[in-house]
Design brief:
Length: 430
């Protein structure tokens, strides 16, 4: 019964969103890829909002229900049937009286299963597509025949580009470069490790009084180079996010220097390598939004690059939806943990594969702690951590690793502002 009701709601809201787009004809920037969609979306929004009337997807609304809600500017009603009825009514009123509708929409377009992108591109034709990264083992591969099938599904968004559309793409990704070469539309590449129209370089961690406070890099376009700075978050992914945002801004005649100034005020989304003060004068790298093999590798490498650290502690939760690749990927990344961290804390059944990989790579079993629950892990690890420790906390959404962070953050009263999944609906599921 719930599935039938959901299908009815999705059908109605999608129809309303489709009609609204026909009435208002906004430009559409659509973002897809296996990592970084939300962070790039937010950076693009910051780069454009001072110049153009623009709306972005709320949080990570990127599904067959999330995208219509984003177009209509309506909230997720969760399991409240009255709120869903209100959404349907409000959507109908918006179609009739759209008012000052945004000139530009920035939408995430995700896929969980085969056919998901077909449902979205059946009614959305983007003016700009941003393609982030297509790794060898993408998240959600569990529901596809192969990683290549995931790539083909996401490629459908690129094929849905309008004839005069633009593809903004990660030029460091060979799979994406191959897709871009086959397009007749305009393409703009961005990169960190290859030469592209928007090339990031010389990235480094920023310190203050010996403590990491952010990240910076140079971004070069033609003969212009600007310093990009990220406050309160770490990782080379920001170089990609900001380079992509600058490339998109160029389509709307916003220059690289203007974007650099604007992005200095940008705050990366919660749960994406955000720096949070921990108890006992420790530092937390909060990367609890979600986890995939590629993103987890990047996080661990960043942890290993930190200076002035007493101990590096990797708190690693399950990576979900990897299907047949799950055991292999957990063990493979466990071996990387042994190179990047002094101590491993695992959360979840699948995460025990990290322990196996780490031990086989030489990590002392005495430095490995296994838990089934993030909350219990956060409570018990408090007696173990020491001043000067840095804790990287990473896990898929269902592990709820933010509960670990809340237990050890110095100011838990700030959890609602700093952590992911702090709404009452999420709290009820804790």
């Amino acid at each position: 019964m719930k599935k039938i009701l959901k299908k009815i709601i999705v059908t109605i809201l999608t129809y309303e969103a489709k009609m609204l787009l026909k009435r208002t004809s906004p430009h559409i920037i659509a973002i897809t890829g296996s990592v970084g969609k939300t962070s790039i979306k937010d950076a693009i929004y910051t780069a454009l909002k001072g110049t153009i009337h623009v709306r972005k997807s709320d949080k990570s609304f990127n599904s067959e229900i999330g995208v219509p809600l984003s177009v209509l500017g309506l909230p997720n009603a969760w399991s409240n049937p009255l709120q869903w009825l209100k959404n349907i009514f409000d959507g109908a009123m918006l179609v009739i009286h759209p008012g000052e509708y945004p000139k530009l929409l920035i939408l995430e377009m995700g896929v969980d299963r085969p056919g998901d992108m077909d449902k979205l591109t059946a009614w959305i034709r983007p003016d700009v597509v941003v393609l982030t990264r297509l790794p060898d083992v993408p998240v959600h591969v569990e529901y596809f025949d192969s990683p290549e099938a995931v790539i083909r599904e996401k490629e459908k968004l690129v094929l849905a580009l309008k004839p005069d559309g633009v593809l903004v793409y990660n030029q460091d990704d060979e799979k994406i470069v191959a897709i871009a070469k086959n397009l007749f539309q305009k393409t703009i590449g961005y990169s960190r490790y290859s030469l592209s129209p928007y090339t990031a370089s010389a990235d480094k961690i920023i310190y203050e009084n010996g403590r990491a406070i952010g990240f910076e890099f140079m971004l070069t376009h033609l003969d212009t180079a600007v310093l990009m700075r990220v406050q309160g978050s770490l990782g080379v992914q920001h170089a990609y996010n900001y380079a992509a945002a600058t490339a998109v801004a160029s389509i709307f005649d916003i220059g690289i220097k203007t974007v650099a100034d604007t992005l200095r005020m940008h705050v990366p989304p919660q749960g994406r390598m955000r720096l949070i003060d921990g108890i006992k004068d420790t530092l937390i790298i909060d990367d609890t939004y979600n986890a995939s093999p590629t993103a987890t590798e990047r996080s661990l490498i960043t942890l290993s690059e930190l200076k002035g650290v007493k101990r590096r502690i990797a708190v690693m939760g399950d990576m979900m939806e990897l299907g047949q690749f799950s055991i292999r990927e957990h063990e493979r990344i466990g071996a990387l943990v042994a190179q990047c961290a002094d101590i491993l804390v695992t959360v979840g059944i699948r995460a025990r594969g990290y322990s196996k990989g780490a031990m086989e790579a030489g990590m002392n079993p005495k430095n490995i702690f296994e838990y089934d629950d993030a909350l219990k892990a956060g409570q018990e690890i408090q007696t173990f951590i020491k001043p000067g420790d840095v804790l990287l906390v990473k896990g898929s959404q269902s592990i709820r690793a933010e509960r670990f962070v809340e237990e050890i953050m110095a100011n838990p009263k700030d959890a609602e502002e700093l952590l992911v999944r702090q709404g009452k609906e999420w709290k009820a599921m804790a």
